[in-house]
Structure formats: structure tokens, C-alpha cells
Amino acid sequence: MSSTDGPAEPYDPAEPYGRGETDGPLEAGGTAGAGPEERLARLGGSWTWLLGSAVGTLVPGVLVLVWPDGTLHVLAVLIGLYLLVTGGFRFVAAFAREHGDRHTGLFVAVLYILAGVLCLRHPLQTIAALSLITGAVWLVTGLLTGWAALAAKGMPHRGFVLGVSALGVVAGVIVLALPSESAVALTRLLGLWLVLLGVAELVLALVRRSAVGRARSGAGPHPAPV
């Protein structure tokens, strides 16, 4: 799509990772003459960016599950890196939102990044600290995503987005409620929830890709929001 078609369509606030009019930032003519903010908006709204976020969640989840007997330091590093990477993805994706909704996305991104830094700090690498930090991030993010989805009553796939937000809320509550003494149980639970959340993001990315494909085949001028 040419960048001369006018301003991007309003972003649906219930979409967790933004919206874009192309399938990637490097599509021919998609970013020609665009400013840094518009480039970030196109990048953050592409389905490939959402796919990258899903991979960034799945990989540490799989590693935690296949290596449940790893040391607490290794677990803290994996969780910390996951939070930092996800925060980076969400920071860029926030630019695909309307200015009024962008602040929420940026807040979530900063929350992930701060939580990742805390997990990597040696004095906080305890079972209780990891469960508190990770559970709180998932709980807050799930609540914000669910609230945004409820506010956007006409959004396609709204039920699925609500389901993903509910998954995050449940993950946060369970991790926060888990006894801090159970290191093995916490490790397996964190890995399981990372995989489940990563799969949910992967499905969102595929839905987004399908919408882009329908738009390119002439079904409409813009892909429907995920």
C-alpha cells in the first residue's frame, strides 16, 4: 500500500500488538518518505512483528520446560530476557495505535522492561521475587488488554482477544498464588504459561497474516484488525 493514501486507519485499542496496513515494514513503497514515528507504526503493526513477539515468548518457555532442573540463576535470566524482549516488541507496537491509546501500550512496554531488569538483578533472584514480578506483569497486562477489548465493541475477533487477556489474568493469579517454596513447581508453571501465551500470540500473528492476504487479494482496501 502506498504511503500517500492518507493517514493510517485508527488502531483498535483491543489489539495487543498494534495494527499495520502492510505485511511488513519493507514492502515496496510502504515507508518511502515516512518519518521515524510512521516507520515504527508500520513495523509494530505488521504480522511479522507479532510473530517475532510470539517466538520471543515461546523460546524461553520451551527452554524452561525441557530444562526444569536448571539453577535459579538460569531461570531468572531466561525470564528476565523474555520480559526485556517482549517489552521491546510492545514498545514498537505501541506506535501503531492511535495517540490516545498509545500511552497504554507504552506503559505496558515499560512495565515489561522494568520487570525484566528486576529479574536480572542478583539480589532479587529468588523464587518469591520471580513469581511476584512475573505474575504481576501478566495480571496487569491481561487486565489492561481485557478492558481495551471490552471498550472496542465492534472489533472483529474480539472474543479471541478477550480469551487471550483472560489467559494472562489466570496465569498471573496462579503464579502469584503459588507457594514460593515450590521451586520445581514454579519453574514448570512458568514454562507452561510462557508456551501457552506464545501459542496464543502465534495464532494472532497468523490471523493477522490471513487478513493481510485477503486485503491483497482484493477483499478490501485494508486488512481487518486482529
From TrEMBL:
Q: Where is this region: Disordered?
A: 1-33
Listed transmembrane segments: 47-67, 73-93, 105-124, 130-152, 159-178, 190-207
Q: Which InterPro entries match?
A: Acid_resist_chaperone_HdeD, DUF308_memb
- Which controlled-vocabulary keywords does the entry list? Membrane, Transmembrane, Transmembrane helix
Q: Which domain of life is it from?
A: Bacteria
Against PANTHER family, the record matches this protein to: PROTEIN HDED
Q: What is this protein called?
A: HdeD family acid-resistance protein
Q: Per the UniProt entry, what species is this protein from, by scientific name?
A: Streptomyces thermocoprophilus
